[in-house]
Amino acid sequence: MTKIGLEIHCQLTNLQSKLFCSCKANYREFEPNENICPVCAGMPGSLPRLNQEAVKKATMIAMALNCSTPEKIAFFRKNYFYPDLPKNFQITQLNIYGDTSVGGSGTISVGDKKIRITRIQLEEDPGRLIYEGSSSKNQITLVDYNRAGTPLVEIVTEPDFETPKEVRDFLNILSDLLKNLGVADPSLEGAMRADANVSVHGGNKVEIKNIGSFHDLEKAAHFEITRQESLHDRDIPIAQETRHWDDRRKITVSSRSKEEDMDYRYFLEGDIPWVKINPEIRTELKSEMPESISSKKERYVTKYNIPEQVADVLSSDKFYSDMFEKSHTESNAKEVANIITTELMGLEDTREKREASKLTATHLRDLADSIQTGKVSRNSSKNALHEILKTGKSVSQIISDLDLGNVSDELELLKIIDKIISDESEAVEQAKSNPQTINFLVGKVMQATKGKADPTSTLNLLKKQIGI
Ligand SMILES: [Zn+2]
């Protein structure tokens, strides 16, 4: 039996400023050590000032994960020396005087399974070390404090995962949830990192630190389970230890650091008073919370009759569900959902993906209406969509510019069909003996009309003309 527990660090990337000073939370746009001040650089005598917005956003995450939220929260100093930590302590949270972390126990559903959340804490991110030099002889270590003090939420789970796949599914759900709440963009480099605790057959727990991507986390868990199973099979005891994920070699490596034995000498952060979270604030936060992914999904299915699978994909993605909300009408909702999930979400081209953000609600609404009223076939609507992304022109303009309008005139369509019948006499004979081969002729008509003919009426007219 495998048990996996996670500690996920997630930056609150949508905040304006750092956790204890007014430097930018978005450190990614700066040259090294440009986004620092005496507070986040740990200068003696500087005093932290708590970012209230960060407390609110972290509380929202706790609520969304069904965690209890205490009436008072407190901050602690976690003391250790490391070059990326300018103060030589990290301001974080700890539950030694009762539950004083921003979130207490909670749950999140992953498929049919409930994963228990142990706690959620708000803390500051350290700086970053950059290693330069090609060999160990000339290697130098540079330090960039731009990230120091960035608001970080740590989500700790119980060891409820039994497979690496469950871990991956959970992270995808969590990532969608954070995006939906509007608190973070977990896809940004380094915005979501994790440690995993893995044990097999009730043996010792091994902690894997320093995993930077979901993909690697799943791989690391796989590797670690295989490694421990193999030791277990040979009756070799599994050491309780910290290992690091080597993402180049794709293996876990025993860590020689003494992190496990370190005494952090936690004590209350005297420069930040306890923070009271009044019931009114909690009520206010609840009312500010956006509709949850599951309730969105249910609404799409019941109100608009959108197939469950489509509703699932659409509701999980904040960017596209926002786009859906802005562009659909009561009558074209299903068609808009269809365009978004089958066409836009499948865009391979990164340039087009970028352009998708420029697509206006009017474009989508008009395109869906044009398909529904038969002005353009579903087939041609794909070309129209690519042209919109390229040019930004209106839907009606594009339909007329590219001559994408449906061949709805039956006489015109009949003319084309008659020509195909006389050109393809062999295929016509074949269709008479084997009606299924008529699809070849339908394809020819589609080709001749550049996909503008309605497939059903084409088939019916072809059958009538051939006499089958
Ligand atoms: Zn600062």
From TrEMBL:
Q: What EC number(s) is this enzyme filed under?
A: 6.3.5.-
Q: What general EC class does the enzyme of this chain belong to?
A: ligase
Q: How does it assemble?
A: Heterotrimer of A, B and C subunits.
Tagged with keyword DNA-binding = no
Organism expressing this protein natively: Candidatus Nitrosomarinus catalinensis
Pfam families named in the record: GatB_N, GatB_Yqey
Which one GO biological process term can you cite for this protein?
A: glutaminyl-tRNAGln biosynthesis via transamidation
Q: What is the lineage of its organism?
A: Archaea, Nitrososphaerota, Nitrososphaeria, Nitrosopumilales, Nitrosopumilaceae
Supply the name of the protein: Aspartyl/glutamyl-tRNA(Asn/Gln) amidotransferase subunit B
Top-rank lineage group of the source organism: Archaea
Work out whether the entry's keyword set contains ATP-binding.
Answer: yes
> Which residues are the signal sequence here?
none
Q: What does this protein do?
A: Allows the formation of correctly charged Asn-tRNA(Asn) or Gln-tRNA(Gln) through the transamidation of misacylated Asp-tRNA(Asn) or Glu-tRNA(Gln) in organisms which lack either or both of asparaginyl-tRNA or glutaminyl-tRNA synthetases. The reaction takes place in the presence of glutamine and ATP through an activated phospho-Asp-tRNA(Asn) or phospho-Glu-tRNA(Gln).
Give start and end of each Asn/Gln amidotransferase domain.
322-466
Gene3D superfamilies, per the entry: 1.10.10.410, GatB domain, N-terminal subdomain
Supply the gene name: gatB
Q: Which family does it belong to?
A: Belongs to the GatB/GatE family. GatB subfamily.
Q: Which reaction does it catalyse?
A: L-aspartyl-tRNA(Asn) + L-glutamine + ATP + H2O = L-asparaginyl-tRNA(Asn) + L-glutamate + ADP + phosphate + 2 H(+); L-glutamyl-tRNA(Gln) + L-glutamine + ATP + H2O = L-glutaminyl-tRNA(Gln) + L-glutamate + ADP + phosphate + H(+)
Keyword list, A-Z: ATP-binding, Ligase, Nucleotide-binding, Protein biosynthesis, Transferase
* Gene Ontology molecular function terms on file: asparaginyl-tRNA synthase (glutamine-hydrolyzing) activity; ATP binding; glutaminyl-tRNA synthase (glutamine-hydrolyzing) activity; transferase activity
Q: Which PANTHER family match?
A: GLUTAMYL-TRNA GLN AMIDOTRANSFERASE SUBUNIT B MITOCHONDRIAL AND PROKARYOTIC PET112-RELATED, GLUTAMYL-TRNA(GLN) AMIDOTRANSFERASE SUBUNIT B, MITOCHONDRIAL
Membrane-crossing residue ranges in chain numbering: none
Per its UniProt record, what PROSITE patterns does this chain match?
GATB
